Amino acid sequence: GAVVSQHPSRVICKSGTSVKIECRSLDFQATTMFWYRQFPKQSLMLMATSNEGSKATYEQGVEKDKFLINHASLTLSTLTVTSAHPEDSSFYICSALKSSGQGAGEQFFGPGTRLTVL
Amino acid sequence: AQSVAQPEDQVNVAEGNPLTVKCTYSVSGNPYLFWYVQYPNRGLQFLLKYITGDNLVKGSYGFEAEFNKSQTSFHLKKPSALVSDSALYFCAVSGIFNKFYFGSGTKLNVKP
Fold first, then answer.
1. Within a 10 A sphere around the Cβ of B94, how many other Cβ atoms?
2. Which end of chain A is more exposed for a tag (fewer CB within 10 A), N or C?
3. What angle do CA B71, B43, A76 make, to 5 degrees?
């Protein structure tokens, strides 16, 4: 299989501070990673597509200056929530795309990061 | 546009009974369909996928799903439910640029 890790698993921060979340593909290289946000009892909402070596592509309604994404290597993407506010509290999940020979790549998901902004 | 719908917010089933979690899709082109399971405060775990080939797809933990093109459905099934199967289940379709579009999720409750 393919393993994706996230760090930290849980973080509590004060309002106004910035928080960085790391997403790593441990046993494969991923030129593309995705960042999702999940509210309680709701589905995953795609925030952005992280592309190695280039700028991330953000979904409509997602503030790129607030949610900074960096994909500096083939195994690491980071999401930085800048000037966090309580409404940014959520469960953030990343996934890494592993290419498949059958035309559609498969996404492997990290375990998620629970962000609480006080 | 790609989308999936999970019409049931919750499914209740007794342990040992068969279970079905429903999913319908709307895609342009060939559908690439997936099922994932999520336990509380955890990420998504892959169950199975349909890309091409046999309409009946077998996956992890005894789950299977049947791709039905005429009904545009991809229902998740298991012949005999376990209490440990209780979790949140998501159907997803892969679209352009490999983006995933998730259904709203179905909470499965398996009672002893």
1. 23
2. N
3. 115
* Positive or negative torsion for Cα A8, A9, A13, A15: positive
Which one of A108, A109, A114 makes the best mutation probe of the B interface by having the most chain B beta carbons within 10 Å? Answer: A109
CA distance A80 to A61: 17
CA distance linking residue A70 with residue A77, whole number of Å:
6
Q: Which two tokens stand for residue B75?
A: 């229902």
Q: How confident is the model at residue A102 (pLDDT cuts 50, 70, 90)?
A: low
- Nearest-CA distance from B10 to chain A in Å? 11
- Cross-chain Cβ contact B44/A106 below 8 Å: no
- Convert the pLDDT of each residue in B66-91 to its tens digit: 999 999 999 999 999 999 999 999 99
Interface contact A104-B36, CB threshold 8 A? no
The answer to whether the Cα torsion of B82, B87, A25, B96 is positive or negative is: positive
Name residue A96's beta-bridge partners: A33, A108
